From TrEMBL:
GO terms for molecular function: hydrolase activity. InterPro entries: NUDIX_hydrolase-like_dom_sf (IPR015797), NUDIX_hydrolase_dom (IPR000086). This is ADP-ribose pyrophosphatase. One of its GO terms (cellular component) is cytosol. It comes from Virgisporangium ochraceum. The lineage of its organism: Bacteria, Bacillati, Actinomycetota, Actinomycetes, Micromonosporales. The keyword Hydrolase applies. PANTHER family: ADP-RIBOSE PYROPHOSPHATASE (PTHR11839:SF31), UDP/ADP-SUGAR PYROPHOSPHATASE (PTHR11839). It comes from the Bacteria.
Amino acid sequence: MTGYEVLNSTERLSNRVFTIVTDELKMPDGSVAERDYMRHVGAVGVVALDADDNVVLVRQYRHALRREIWELPAGLIDVPGEKLAEAAARELAEEADLRAGRYDLLIDANPSPGCSDEIIRLFLARDLSEVPVGERHERTHEEAGMTVTRVPLDRAVTMALSGEITNAACLVGILALAQAKARNWETLRQVDEPLPK
């Protein structure tokens, strides 16, 4: 952050997911400007790939957009002490009724860096199996209407590039998966790698 100095910070709104902040920011040239942004708890997402090279996608209503969109199983980093790979496994089970025998770190992304510090860590999940019916999470609110679909990887890439998929994490995850597979999985990283600062 060389040359940028926060002179004052004012919290405008806070809830369990994010805080809206206004910073008075001194620029490298000495000028001062206010910058509004969102501090976010962060999230994890899962790019689940089955033995037939299908990607698991969910379709969920998002009120800000007033429509359903394609997404990855994903959720907030909001359980104290929970490791990120454990959070990913929890979300995969809750949203797709799946477990994975193997997790790898696929990629990290900042979905909206112009207005938020949110980071989402995306894991590749393989060796999939179904969560037994009696152990499945009960979905509520928007998640109650969520559908789960397995889409061939090539088709998912086409959906991403054609505009059918618009969720940033889903786009990044699908395209990162396609590249990781094309590179014989050499780009995959350890699941416990620290988040970027």
